[in-house]
Amino acid sequence: MTKIKKGILGGLSGKIGPVVGANWKGTDYLRSKPSIPPVQTPPRKMAQAKFGYLTSFLKPFHPYLLQGFKHAAIGKTEFNAAFTANFKTALQGEYPDFSIDFSQLLLSSGKLEVVANPTCTRLSASKLQFKWQDVTKGHFHIDDLIMIVVYSAKRKRADGMIGGVKRNAGNCIFKMEKRLWTSEVEVFISVIGHNGRAVSNSYYLGKVDVI
User: Fold this and answer.
1) Can you say whether the dihedral through the CA atoms of 82, 56, 96, 179 is positive or negative?
2) 38, 137, 163, 199: which is deepest, by most CB within 10 A?
C-alpha cells in the first residue's frame, strides 16, 4: 500500500507502479522498483547463445553487410536484416556446438543477377585472382560493380573490396591484408547495381587454401 505523508505535497511510502517511495534519515525519496531477472530456462539459454554466436560471427562483415543489405533493411538496420536472413539457414548445430554453413551464408541479398561461373585462384600468399563471365539475361547492367569478401575462420577477420571493378571486366586480382596471408579463406562475390539501386545475392566460391 502507498501512503502520502504530510498532505498532498508530502513524501511517498510504498509502491506506485514501477516506482517505490521511501524515507532514509528523514529524507523522502523515490527509487525504481527492483526488476526480477527472467528465469534462465534451457530453451532461453540456448536461444541467447545462438543469438550471441551469430551476432559475434557477423561483426567482421559489417562494412559489406551495410552495402549488401541496404535494400533489405526495411524498418531495421542492415546488420539486423543480415542476421535475420542467416539465422535459419547459415547457423547450424545445437547448443553449445554451433557452426556456420558458408555455402548458405548471405553477405548480400537482392534481385540483381550475379556474375556467371565465378572462380577464385590463389596466386600467392597475398593475392587472389577472380574470373567470371557476364550474364546474358535478367536484371543487370554492364557497368554494375563487383563486391568481393574473403574471411579467415582462423583469424576471425574479413577483408574485401566494394566496387573498383565493373561486371564487364571479367576478372580482377585482389590483394588481401597481411594478417590473412597464412590462412585459408572463405570467398564470396556479389554485384552492386551501377546506380546503387540494386544488389545481387552473394555467391560462395568455396574455401581457398594457403600456398
Assistant:
1) positive
2) 199
Which amino acid appears at position 36 of this protein?
Answer: I
Closest CA to 111 of 206, 188, 190: 190
Structural domain includes residue 37: no
- Give yes or no: residues 28 and 74 share one domain: no
pTM of the model: 0.80
What cell was used for 68?
549488401
How does DSSP assign 69-106, residue by residue? TTTT-SSS-HHHHHHHHHHTTTEEEETTEEEE-GGG--
pLDDT, tens only, 22-33: 666 566 666 666
* Structural domains in the chain (count): 2
If one counts every other C-beta atom within 10 angstroms of the C-beta of residue 61, the result is 20
Q: Tell me the pLDDT of the chain averaged across its residues.
A: 89
Residue 93 has pLDDT above 70, yes or no: yes
Instruction: Tell me the per-residue pLDDT of 100-110, one tens digit each, with 9 for 90 and over.
Output: 999 999 999 99
| DSSP per residue, 6-18 | SSTTS-EEEEETT
The cell numbers describing 39, all together, are: 528465469
Q: Which CATH number goes with the domain that contains 182?
A: 2.60.40.10
Q: Are residues 123 and 24 in the same domain?
A: no
Cell numbers found for residue 16: 506506485
* Structural domain boundaries enclosing 24: 7-32
